[in-house]
Amino acid sequence: MQERVAGTVGPAPAGLNLGGAKGVVIAVFVAAVVLFLASTFISPNLVSWSSLRIIIILSGFLAIAAFGQGIVIMTGGLDVSVGSVITLAGVLMAAFVPENNVGFFPAFIGVLVMAGAVGGFSGIGVAFFRIPPFVMTLATGIMVQSAVFGYTQGSPSKSSAPSWLADITTGEIKRIPVFLLVLIVFVAAAVLLQHYSRFGRYVQAMGANSNAAKIAGVRARSMTVLVYITSGLCAGLVGVLLLGFTGAPTLTMGEPYTFGTISAVVVGGSSILGGRGYFLGTVAGALLLTVLSNDITALGLGQGWRTIIEGLVIVGALSSFRMLERRQAA
């Protein structure tokens, strides 16, 4: 019996079936490319190498943070502390490491450990005290943001980022962005982890059927804590990288990523209810949302219109995926 149940979380990749997943990924990537090319009607400067380079970097930040968010969502949870953790990591990295990179690696590891600990704190609340994920992570985010405000007294004192971070996020090798190479490595590792590892299969099993996962031997509480730690680590990594891109920390640097990561996961074809997800789809969703945001900024539209347009995109994506599910079921 144990062997048969365990087979439900066997070697098949987690998330959508491969055919459906590939269709979603291709469709979202094509939509992003079409939208990028159509940007020329807004301004020819939007369809250039410099513009594409910025889009790759910004969408990469969103994709990395969205990987952790997607893992949480696959278990049926939600992490709205992502933005606060990004801000925490950026502020602390800037405070600990000067522009000449002295003490870079110990500080980098320490910041990631702290970010992971914040995620683990949320995971413990969700797993052991059964606090709803939204409530737990919202409370965690508020506490982290308040701690950052207290630590900086409302104004980060650091004026410049470590030069190594600037080299990673803005440097080029023969006109190829260094960050693009970093992003490719991250995406490859994330795909292997989420879709071809025991960790990924357990995460998918917990979201699809938590009772069956327990019978199969999955330690649900420990896995839940580990999932939120992963989200914290991803957010911490983005905070550090974002510091290198912006050059200096701000107290709102992580704010756009709280719901941006959720949007990227949903637009990429993952189920907001858990049990189904595909990281390449999340990457495509992050790219599409970044191109859309770039166009909205170029049009000079206010935050209200930005929110409405992005909301319509999410609703449209959800409707399309629902129709696809019905066709597959039929």
Summarize the structure.
This protein is mainly α. It has helices spanning 2-6, 18-38, 49-74, 82-96, 104-128, 133-152, 163-170, 178-196, 198-208, 210-215, 220-246, 257-267, 279-299, 303-329; strands at 172-173, 176-177. A two-stranded antiparallel ribbon has the order 1-2.
CATH architecture name: Orthogonal Bundle
Report the strand count.
Answer: 2
Q: How many angstroms separate the termini?
A: 31 Å
Arithmetic mean of pLDDT: 88
What does this structure look like?
By secondary structure, the chain is an all-alpha fold. It has one domain (13-325): ABC transporter involved in vitamin B12 uptake, BtuC (Orthogonal Bundle). The protein has helices at residues 2-6, 18-38, 49-74, 82-96, 104-128, 133-152, 163-170, 178-196, 198-208, 210-215, 220-246, 257-267, 279-299, 303-329, and strands at 172-173, 176-177. It starts with a helix and ends with a helix. Residues 1-19 have low confidence and may be disordered.
